[in-house]
Design a protein that fits this description.
The protein is of the alpha/beta class and 460 residues long. It contains 14 helices and eleven strands. A seven-stranded mixed beta sheet has the order 1-7-6-5-4-2-3, with helices on both faces. The chain has a four-stranded antiparallel beta sheet with strand order 8-9-11-10. It starts with a helix and ends with a helix. Bound molecules: pyridoxal-5'-phosphate. Pyridoxal-5'-phosphate (PLP) binds next to helix 6.
């Protein structure tokens, strides 16, 4: 291992990375090549002989780039995808260069110190209990899984059942409840945690869990109960009424988990904090840093009020691992034993932004969503169909076929990239504002693209 060995490949990677980043504001968002064409460019056969590292980097970048979608474009609105802050990206490169297995605080104090501070800062920013356990996961799906694993462990332990030792079979059945608009990741996490699909208790037209429905389901439940609530519906952006739902659920002895993949960040903004009022009363929370905080993939955050519940559900121990010294190890706070130090870019983003910067980021995303909604509403023949309370805007034309065509037209034009979806029984073109660069100018370009689409399709 020598300096020279790394110098040229890293320089090559840096040059390609800069070309990519420089191209983002103006490049077409849609990829130019499909998978098979990219495989052809990469070369399908594993060569017998190897190649020079720098040539490999050039070849990789040149072959793959035409197949990339410009997810970091400030006019990318598909799924829920954040961009990348420079400090976070650079920190992520350091994480790769340091190549630490961040599982153990004793083995690698440097990166774990940064991650633990990032966790403390997140709790403080979001107004969640300072003593809660924080674990970094691959995303909100695995953060939801961590929360549900802690939940099942705690509710069964209260009844004298040790699920870690004995498994679920033969134990008291858990009633798992959620609103009708529950995100698919809660379904996945429920499956993985052995809770199965949640029993849905109803929701209002925006997707907020039905309180009478929840009340009735809690009253009907006979054994342990886990309730999944939501901060930020993927279509409407709405928030469950935590201040009412959580006391209701806790009075019935239920564990409350909050999926806030992007919506939890409302808690970091004094102007938006009312949206999550009362969420601090829950038992566990999940969010993503790779969405709203704009750190590179992959980075989710699992938070559990009582760290001992996290330890019971996720903790591990083996003769060759460091003996836990009173404080949870990173491998006690995540489903993985070994993992990259993905919390370090979170530290860097938070350090670069500061408390005000995070609030400004979240406020800016919401302002952009409102700007899109106002612009779209002024286009004849189009309708914003959700109440824009956060970062999500759903747009519809007069009928489903025209709405679908609108989304298809926009992605083909590629100035802006929303996704098509179905919401409340109708087709919608769904805009999720999650990129730090989506400012008033980008909003204006997006509205202009939608107006051109409407004209081209004869909508207006
Ligand atoms: C509300 C909600 N929960 C969970 C997730 C899953 O997050 P991830 O893709 O990071 O696993 C998403 C993703 O968009 C989401 O919107």
């Amino acid at each position: 291992m020598s300096h020279d060995e790394y110098e040229d490949p890293l320089h090559a990677a840096r040059a390609h990375a800069m070309d990519w980043l420089d191209s983002l504001p103006e490049r077409r968002i849609q990829p130019e090549l499909a998978i098979e064409a990219v495989k052809d460019r990469l070369g399908r056969d594993l060569p017998v002989a190897g190649d020079d590292a720098t040539r490999v980097v050039h070849h990789l970048a040149e072959a793959v780039e035409p197949g990339l979608i410009a997810m970091q474009s400030p006019r990318f609105y598909g799924f829920v995808i954040g961009g990348t802050y420079p400090a976070a990206l650079a920190a992520d490169w350091l994480v790769s260069a340091w190549d630490q297995n961040a599982g153990s605080r004793q083995a690698t104090p440097g990166v774990v110190a940064a991650e633990e501070l990032a966790g403390d800062w997140l709790l403080s920013l979001l107004g969640l209990p300072a003593e809660a356990g924080v674990g970094f996961s691959t995303g909100a799906t695995t953060a939801n899984l961590s929360g549900l694993l802690a939940a099942r462990s705690a509710v069964l332990r209260r009844l004298g059942w040790d699920v870690e030792r004995d498994g679920l079979a033969g134990g008291p059945p858990i009633t798992f409840l959620a609103g009708d608009s529950v995100h698919s990741s809660i379904l996945s996490a429920g499956q993985l945690a052995g809770l199965g699909r949640p029993r849905t208790v109803g929701a209002d037209p925006q997707g907020r869990i039905s309180l009478p429905g929840l009340d009735a389901a809690l009253a009907a439940a006979t054994g342990p109960v886990v309730v999944a609530l939501q901060a930020g519906d993927v279509h409407s952006g709405c928030f469950d009424d935590f201040a009412s739902a959580i006391p209701l659920a806790r009075a019935a002895g239920a564990w409350v988990h909050v999926d806030g993949a992007f919506g939890l960040w409302a808690g970091a903004s004094p102007a938006l904090r009312h949206l999550v009022e009362g969420y601090e009363l829950a038992d566990s929370w999940a969010t993503d840093a790779h969405k709203t905080l704009n750190v590179p993939y992959d980075c989710g955050v699992a938070i559990v009020r009582d760290p001992s519940d996290m330890l019971a559900a996720l903790g591990t121990q083996a003769a060759y691992l460091p003996v836990r010294a009173g404080v949870l190890e990173p491998f006690d706070r995540a489903v993985e034993l070994s993992r990259r130090a993905r919390g370090v870019p979170v530290w860097a983003a938070l350090r670069a932004l500061g408390r005000d910067g995070v609030a400004g980021l979240v406020d800016g995303l919401v302002a952009a969503a409102r700007g899109l909604a106002a612009g779209f509403t002024a286009i004849p023949g189009l309708q914003v169909v959700n109440d824009v309370v956060f970062t999500q805007v759903c747009l519809a034309a007069v009928d489903d076929a025209t709405t679908t065509a609108l989304g298809d037209w926009l992605r083909a034009d590629s100035t802006a990239w929303p996704s098509n979806s179905t919401w409340q029984g109708r087709q919608v073109v769904r805009f999720s504002v999650s990129n730090r660069g989506t400012d008033a100018a980008q909003v204006a370009r997006t509205v202009d693209a939608v107006a051109r689409a409407a004209a081209a399709l004869g909508i207006s």
